[in-house]
Task: inverse folding
């Protein structure tokens, strides 16, 4: 039975001439898990909001949307409100009240239920979501992942039949995001809840989805099972990058069978179709070449050896037994942290949530001050720089929340009147110049903030989660920009959760755990040495081939091992 | 100190209303001393070691309050001495001393109240009077820490961008203004999201017909609440009777009267003592019970 039916919907915002949605038609069956994907700005949010009638944007709309056979515009408000749940992107702003228990009860209060019934439903939901431990907490004390889980629980408590989620994991770290997706899968499997989810990180959601909906320029381009949409997505340069690792490897070759989706299926696929004649990739064959120094295997080994003996160039930024804590009576966030970032190097610090990565970066930027230990910038104590000289031509930081970079009303004001695109960098803001920075998409905001930070002309650039909330297209752009900056001689320290991103652009990766750097190495050595904390491509090729960390490398090694008969 | 925290907000407020009411408006010396002792014991149970840190503050406050009265108040008949031509009377000294005790006692009671009554308990009380205001306040309480955090983040970012130079006050001032202006935009932006989230969960304007919002109450009024309130009313009755009978009446001016300890005066003193020590008695009773249970196991 169709739970949702969208029939020929066209939508146009009052201010712009072009239609955002152009003749969208589709059906969603009861109990289906549908993932909606497409480039940023293709009308995903508009579509989702039109389905949730209360949030429908103003504009000219044609076509009809039916929920359980009833036109959503004609039915009684309350009925649809309860039956369609909606979760948005940003965890913080969706929370209405100050305590967790009140937040859970909020929707039920609006429904006018009695205290005893609310108590029962809230208790039930809190138990199911494991919220019991923080039921009495203030909402401001929760972590991002907890906040988003609370938003989900606060919607689920109203017992909706259809759950719509608009990029709910974009602001979460990968572990919290995977947990969130797992919770959705559980709701779908155990209760037959119908889910419509828009996402751009597809690695985790493809395996759990029943059908994938691909949108482009306001049209429905493709609507099929995860295994089948690959053929279509592979033709589009932007969409191809966002496909799960196994599908990308599959579609790099011409096989006629069904595409693998999960890492497990990907492994079986490689085992079945490729030899293991060559298990190691030569340096010059690596598509992602972090060191950018093509050379012989010998030279290569030499550079790795140097790198390990820590005599690789002169340190641009170094920490010597740095300790930091926020309050006198709190625990140390950094505990005798020591590491060096060498000149013209890209150094990636990876690590779990709240491990102190961001704090490290802010200490390096001189925004937070350690209570013991030394931070040196080009051999000189960081604290001995005057603020004026430190942040001009020396050091610049791109923070995690890039909105904090913007304090003016338009992009033009932010970047300066006669802003010129730096050579070799793919910053094209001409179309965005007169917009308010807050109105840009996640990826555009990130690039714009980076462009502004680069105006300080730093020698050392600090980046805090530069890929947070941006799609794979902008991620690829970001990687190119960072590589280019390195070529121009910049030293870059990156703090990130994004393993794929680190695998693509780092010269060295380090794992931050429990207040200190516990291991550091070249990316392929680093990820090969980790069993769990590693990229999907590495997990898929582990024990089959050696030191494969990116999808590009995986495709390359498969190509080298192609069987003659295929 | 969990026993008293577990009571219903109404019970807690009624108790504090009565106790601080007597302390503030019935300034009989013995009553003040009893109240102060009760507040002290309560604070020790509630704060433990934390209280030690605030002792110097209380002491200075006490000293200040006690000294100021005789310097500015020259009522009373018994002259002690002259200071810069001002008369210092014995009555003013006594009055100042007891007023200082009163202030300290009230301060400690209110501190205890603020610990016991978290913001959501106050909201609950407000909500019984005006539910809509309570919701707005709850949203405000949610919003304030969010706002503060964002300001801090922007300050750090802007500092690292060299936009705010902390070496110069002028730049710092201009920067603060700019941050304020962007925070207005940020707040509006957030408010839109929050409003969407509210509408998505069925919040509609209350002017709409046939719409009734209910209110979830996370507190239960238990038998123990009833008992405690009954006890408080009973003790208040005994006290008031004692006060009206005049057995314990006292005046500071024009001459400080002598304190009477008679059979009639013992009853109100004892009643007030019990009233003031109620939280401590409950707490100690529970601790003893707990030891007893444990040993019984």
Result:
């Amino acid at each position: 039975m169709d739970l949702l039916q969208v029939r020929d919907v066209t939508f146009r915002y009052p201010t712009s001439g072009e239609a955002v949605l152009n003749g969208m038609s589709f059906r969603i069956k009861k109990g289906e898990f549908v993932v909606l994907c497409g480039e940023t700005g293709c009308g995903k949010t508009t579509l989702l909001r039109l389905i949730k009638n209360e949030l429908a944007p103003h504009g000219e709309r044609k076509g009809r949307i039916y929920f359980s056979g009833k036109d959503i515009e004609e039915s009684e408000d309350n009925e649809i409100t309860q039956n369609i749940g909606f979760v948005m992107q940003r965890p913080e702003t969706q929370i209405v009240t100050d305590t967790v228990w009140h937040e859970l009860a909020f929707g039920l209060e609006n429904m006018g239920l009695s205290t005893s019934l609310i108590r029962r439903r809230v208790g039930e939901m809190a138990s199911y979501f494991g919220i019991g431990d923080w039921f009495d907490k203030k909402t401001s004390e929760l972590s991002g992942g907890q906040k988003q889980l609370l938003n989900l629980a606060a919607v689920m408590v109203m017992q909706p039949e259809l759950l719509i989620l608009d990029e709910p994991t974009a602001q979460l770290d990968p572990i919290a995001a995977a947990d969130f997706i797992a919770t959705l899968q559980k709701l779908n499997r155990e209760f037959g809840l119908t889910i419509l989810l828009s996402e751009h990180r597809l690695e985790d959601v493809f395996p759990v989805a029943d059908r994938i909906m691909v949108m482009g320029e306001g049209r429905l381009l493709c609507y099929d099972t995860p295994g089948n949409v690959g053929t279509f997505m592979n033709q589009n340069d932007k969409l191809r990058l966002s496909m799960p690792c196994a599908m990308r490897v599959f579609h790099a070759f011409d096989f006629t069978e069904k595409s693998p989706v999960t890492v497990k299926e990907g492994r079986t696929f490689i085992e079945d179709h490729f030899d293991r004649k060559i298990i190691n990739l030569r340096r010059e064959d690596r598509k992602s070449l972090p060191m950018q120094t093509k050379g012989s295997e010998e030279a290569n080994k030499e550079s790795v050896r140097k790198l390990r003996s820590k005599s690789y160039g002169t340190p641009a930024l170094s920490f010597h037994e740095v300790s930091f804590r926020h309050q006198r009576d709190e625990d140390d966030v950094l505990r005798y942290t020591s590491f060096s970032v060498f000149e013209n190097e890209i150094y990636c610090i990876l690590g779990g949530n709240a491990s102190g990565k961001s704090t490290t970066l802010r200490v390096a930027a001189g925004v937070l001050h350690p209570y013991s230990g030394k931070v040196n910038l080009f051999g000189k104590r960081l604290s001995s720089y005057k603020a004026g000289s430190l942040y001009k031509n020396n050091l610049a930081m791109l923070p995690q929340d890039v909105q904090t970079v913007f304090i003016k009303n338009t992009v033009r004001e932010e970047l300066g009147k006669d802003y010129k695109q730096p050579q070799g960098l793919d910053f094209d803001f001409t179309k965005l110049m007169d917009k308010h920075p807050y109105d840009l998409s996640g990826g555009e905001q990130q690039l714009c903030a980076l462009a502004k930070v680069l105006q300080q002309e730093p020698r050392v650039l600090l980046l805090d989660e530069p890929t947070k909330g941006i799609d794979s297209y902008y991620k690829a752009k970001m990687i190119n920009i960072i590589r280019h900056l390195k070529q121009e001689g910049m030293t870059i320290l990156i703090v990130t959760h994004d393993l794929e991103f680190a695998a693509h652009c780092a010269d060295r990766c380090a794992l931050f755990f429990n207040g200190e750097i516990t291991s550091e190495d070249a990316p392929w050595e680093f990820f090969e040495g980790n069993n769990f904390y590693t990229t999907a491509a590495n997990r898929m090729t582990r024990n089959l081939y050696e030191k494969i960390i990116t999808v590009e490398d995986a495709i390359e090694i498969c190509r080298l091992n192609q069987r003659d008969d295929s | 100190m969990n026993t008293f925290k577990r009571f219903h907000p109404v019970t807690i407020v009624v108790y504090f209303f009565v106790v601080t009411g007597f302390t503030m408006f019935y300034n009989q010396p013995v009553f003040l001393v009893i109240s102060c002792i009760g507040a002290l014991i309560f604070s020790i149970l509630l704060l433990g070691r934390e209280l030690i840190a605030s002792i110097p503050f209380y002491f200075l406050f006490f000293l200040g309050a006690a000294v100021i009265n005789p310097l500015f108040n020259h009522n009373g008949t018994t002259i002690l001495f002259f200071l810069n031509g001002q008369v210092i009377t014995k009555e003013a000294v006594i009055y100042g001393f007891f007023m200082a005790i009163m202030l300290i006692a009230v301060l400690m009671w209110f501190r205890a109240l603020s610990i016991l009554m978290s913001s959501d308990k106050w909201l609950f009380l407000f909500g019984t009077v005006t539910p809509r205001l309570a919701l707005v306040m709850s949203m405000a309480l949610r919003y304030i820490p969010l706002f503060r955090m964002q300001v801090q983040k922007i300050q750090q970012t802007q500092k690292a961008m060299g936009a705010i130079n902390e070496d110069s006050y002028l730049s710092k001032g201009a920067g603060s203004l700019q941050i304020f202006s962007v925070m207005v935009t940020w707040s509006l932006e957030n408010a839109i999201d929050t409003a969407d989230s509210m509408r998505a969960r069925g919040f509609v304007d209350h002017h709409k017909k046939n719409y009734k919002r209910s209110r979830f109450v996370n507190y239960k009024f238990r038998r123990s609440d009833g008992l405690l309130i009954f006890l408080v009313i009973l003790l208040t009755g005994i006290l008031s009777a004692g006060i009206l009978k005049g057995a314990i009446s006292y005046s500071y001016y024009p001459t400080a009267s002598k304190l009477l300890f008679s059979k009639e005066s013992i009853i109100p003193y004892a009643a007030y003592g019990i009233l003031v020590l109620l939280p401590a008695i409950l707490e100690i009773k529970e601790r003893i019970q707990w030891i007893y249970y444990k040993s019984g196991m």
